[in-house]
Amino acid sequence: MKNISVIGAGTMGNGIAHVFAQKGFKVTLIDVSSPQLEKALATIAKNLDRQVAKEVITEAQKAETLANISTCNTVAEGVSNADLVVEAATENTTLKLNIFKEIDAYAPAAAILASNTSSISITQIAAVTKRPSQVIGMHFMNPVPVMKLVEIINGYTTDKAVSDSIVELSKQLGKIPSVVNDYPGFIANRILMPMINEAIISLYEGVAGVNEIDTIMKLGMAHPMGPLQLADFIGLDVCLSILRVLHDGLGNPKYAPCPLLINMVTAGRLGVKSGEGFYTYIAGSKELIVSKQFNK
Ligand code: CAA
Q1: What are 100-156's pLDDT values in tens digits?
Q2: Which of 125, 154, 156, 230 has minimal CB crowding within 10 Å?
Q3: pTM score of the predicted model
Q4: Which atom of ligand 1 lies nearest, measured to the CA of 193?
Q5: Is any ligand 1 atom within 6 A of the Cβ of residue 189?
Q6: Known catalytic membership, residue 118
Q7: Helices marked H in 3-58 — which ranges?
Q8: Residue 113: closest CA among 82, 140, 72
Q9: Is residue 187 within 8 Å of 178, Cβ to Cβ?
Q10: 295 pLDDT exceeds 90?
Q11: What is the per-residue DSSP string for 133-167?
Q12: All domains in the chain, ordered by first residue
C-alpha cells in the first residue's frame, strides 16, 4: 500500500495523516472545510516540531512528512487512487453510512475501506458498500502520534486476508495492533466507557469529588489521566454517544449513561473542546482546575 486517503481533518484525522506520512506513505487528507484542512496541517506541523525538539525526528524528516500530505475538499477526487481509505469523520451513523456509500463509488475496486469509528458497527458500515469483505475497523487512540495501540475490528463480513494486511500495515506504522470482533463498543470502549460512567455516577452520588476520584485512579491504578479528565479529553458528547451504543446494542441497564453526563452534554459542557467539563480549560495552560460547579 502506498496511497492512503484520510477522510476528516479533525483531531483523529490529522493524527492518522501524521503517522502515515511520517512512515513515507502518500496521504490525501480530505475535508469539506478548507479552514479545517489548514488547521489540521498547522497542528501536524506543531506536533512534528515536538518530535524535532525531542530529537525523535530531524528537521529534514519533518519536511518530508509534510511533503507527503496533500489536501482535497471532495471524497470523489480524494479517494480516486487510494489503496486504503481511513474514514475519521464525526461519530454519527447516518453521516458515516453516507460517506462510505460515496467512498465505495469512487475508490478503486481493490481499495480497502477502514473506519476509525470508536463504536459504530463495522458490519453495518460494510453492508452499505458493494465490497463488504474489504471493510474493516482501524481504531486509533488519541493522541495518535503517541498512542501505540490500533484496535482492529473485523466486521461480520471482513475477509481474513484484508484483516491480516491491516495488521501488517499497523506494524509498519510502528503501532501494536490488536484484533477484535464487531460487537458494540468493540473492546476498548466496552471496558473504558463503563469505568468513566461509574466515575461520573460516583461524583453524581456524592461519593467523592472530581480531584479525589481522579487522584485515586491515577495514583492507585497508574492511569496517566483520571477517568473524569480522560472523559473531558475524549469529549463528553463522544462518551455519551458511545454509552448509548453500548446501552442500545447490548440491552443491559448497567450501560445506562449517568444523568449528570446527559445534563452536561445538553448544557454544552463537552470537556476540553468547549473549555469546560469536569475541569475548566484555559488556552495555553496545562493547569488542571476543577470546574466551579464541582468545586464545592
Ligand atoms: N503529537 C506528538 N507528540 C505528542 C502529542 C501529539 N499530539 N501529544 C503529546 N505528545 C508527546 C509529548 O511531546 C511528550 O513527549 P515525551 O514523552 O517524549 O516528552 C509526550 O507525548 C507526553 O506529552 P506531554 O508532556 O505534553 O503531556 P503528558 O505527559 O501529560 O501526556 C498524554 C499527555 C500522552 C495525552 C497522557 O496524558 C496520556 O497518555 N493520557 C491518556 C491518553 C488516553 O488514554 N488516550 C486514549 C483515549 S480513548 C481514545 O482515543 C479512543 C476512543 O474511542 C474514545
Answers
A1: 999 999 999 999 999 999 999 999 999 999 999 999 999 999 999 999 999 999 999
A2: 156
A3: 0.95
A4: 54
A5: yes
A6: yes
A7: 11-22, 34-53
A8: 82
A9: yes
A10: no
A11: GGEEEEEE-SSTTT--EEEEEE-TT--HHHHHHHH
A12: 3-181 (3.40.50.720), 189-294 (1.10.1040.10)
Catalytic residue among 151, 170, 197, 241: 151
Ligand 1 touching residue 146 (CB < 6 A): yes
Report the pLDDT value the prediction gives residue 284, as an integer from 0 to 100. Answer: 87
Burial 127-145 (b: 16+ CB within 10 A, else e): eebebbebbbbbbbbbebb
Alpha-carbon span 113 to 6, nearest angstrom:
10
285 is catalytic: no
Residue 203 Cα to ligand 1 middle (Å): 25
Q: Which position among 5, 118, 170, 241 bears the catalytic label?
A: 118
- Using CA atoms, how far apart are residues 81 and 144, in angstroms rounded to an integer? 24
Tens of pLDDT, residues 61-91: 999 999 999 999 999 999 999 999 999 999 9
Which residue's CA is the closest to the ligand 1 atom numbered 37? Answer: 224
Give the DSSP letter of residue 30: E
pLDDT tens digits for range 174-213 = 999 999 999 999 999 999 999 999 999 999 999 999 999 9
Q: Is 50 in the pocket of ligand 1 (CB under 6 A)?
A: yes
DSSP β-ladder status, 149-154 and 135-140: antiparallel
Q: What is the CA radius of gyration of the chain?
A: 19
